[in-house]
What we know:
Lipocalin; 8-stranded antiparallel sheet; mainly beta
Amino acid sequence: MKQKLLxxxxxxxxxxxxxxxxxxxxxxxxxxxxxxxxxxxxxYEYDSNGNLLSMTxxxxxxxxxTNFFKTLYTYNSNNKTTERLDQQWDGxxxxxxxxTLYTYNxxxxxxxxxxxxxxxxxxxELL
Length: 127
C-alpha cells in the first residue's frame, strides 16, 4: 500500500512541474443570489524565465476598472528575488509604499531580509 501511494505522489509532482502554466489575470466577484458583481481584478506579467515581474490590482467602481495597487519584483542572474516593491495608486500615479530587499550568499541562500517603508520621499527601515 505504501508503494502505491508513493508512486502516485511522484507522478503528480512530475506532471505538475512539466505542465506548469502562468496565470495572466484573475477576477474576484461577489454573488448576491441573482447576479455576479465584479470586485477586484489582477493582471500578472512574467519575464522570459517565467519569473513574476508584476501584479497589478484593479478595483471595480460600479462602471469601470480603476487602478488600485501594484507589486513589482526584481531578480538576480540566478532567478532569485532581490526586491519586492509595493505601490499604491494615488489617483494619478503609483507611489511607493513598502519594499523588501533580499540578500543571498554564494550558495544562493538568503542571508538578509530588509523591510522598508516609503516616508518623506525616502526609504526608511521598519521598526
